[in-house]
Amino acid sequence: MVKKIFSGVQPTGNLHLGNYxxxxxxxxxxxxxxxxxxxxxxxxxxxxxxKKNTKELRNNIRETxxxxxxxxxxxxxxxx
Length: 80
Prior knowledge:
Elements: E1 3-9, H1 17-32, E2 36-42, H2 44-47, H3 54-71
Parallel strand pairs: 1-2
């Protein structure tokens, strides 16, 4: 049975062990199961509910996507 999964992380700029253990590690596990159709996102619009420096937000978004890829999410198999 194919599972459709959509999940994301806010680009807060302070990724930590909790982000990895709570979300990203599970994203990698879901990514590696070929039965899943996954979309992993950076919730950048959700992050602007508080005032942010746009340059800092842009850098945080890139850092979050780089963390996804470095952790093992394959952007050729899944949508980031």
